[in-house]
Amino acid sequence: MGAEFSLDYNKSILTLKTKNFPLEKILKKISEKADFRLKLNGQFSKIVSIEIINKPVEAALRRLAGEHHIIVLFGKDGNKEAIKEVWVYQKSKSQNLARNDNIPEADVDLIKESSPSENSKNSNDFNKYSGYTDNTNTIATDSALIEAKIAELALIGTEEAVTTIASTLGHRNPKVRKFVAEQLGQMEHEQAILTLGQILLGDSDATVRLAAVEALANKSNEAAKMFLEAATKDNNRRVQKAAQDAL
Fold this sequence. Notes:
Layout: E1 4-10, E2 13-22, H1 23-34, E3 37-41, E4 47-56, H2 57-65, E5 69-77, E6 80-89, H3 108-114, H4 125-130, H5 143-156, H6 159-166, H7 174-184, H8 190-202, H9 206-216, H10 222-231, H11 237-246
Parallel strand pairs: 3-6
Antiparallel strand pairs: 1-2, 2-4, 5-6
Helix pairs in contact: 5-6, 5-7, 6-8, 7-9, 8-9, 8-10, 9-11, 10-11
């Protein structure tokens, strides 16, 4: 059967129709049309037949990526935010992970089933102390309690534990966020590397980003290398140097 491909792009809205077309070529054609840098890590020769009608580019890319990991980096284009870079890398064959690029609210009940804790008396307990809340007036300041819970979850080491730990990344205290990066660095789960990358690319505090670099420096995963390469362009010299030394 022959290959078919059509792509329409207008003001960040994309319509795509393909039949028996390689995924790598699809991604490259979208990057050319939408004018962003594409970085692929792995083999993406899968043949794809798909129809995406009038969707934002990011949503279309995430649907195309499927089980693979995808990081979308935005930047200023005049007065608007626009996609500047997209990184796609192959899911590890040794792990059966569900893609989780946007960290959701933690499912604390699931974690409690794995590791009962006297400090987790109800399903809202961890989020109450984590700072992951829509009501900023309820954010707790007991950093010691938060760090104790994070350390406990790090010992569990599952994807769900990583996701729950990641719910603290919105905490206003950079010392807590730094501790998160340090604990993630001790976890072997691939989702921990993704979360460290999000810290590295998104945290406003240089000490937190530096902790993420130091944690990634101990990882041999190709994704860790990609994040470290991005960190060499950080606006903080200490972070830049640490990333350069780690590569």
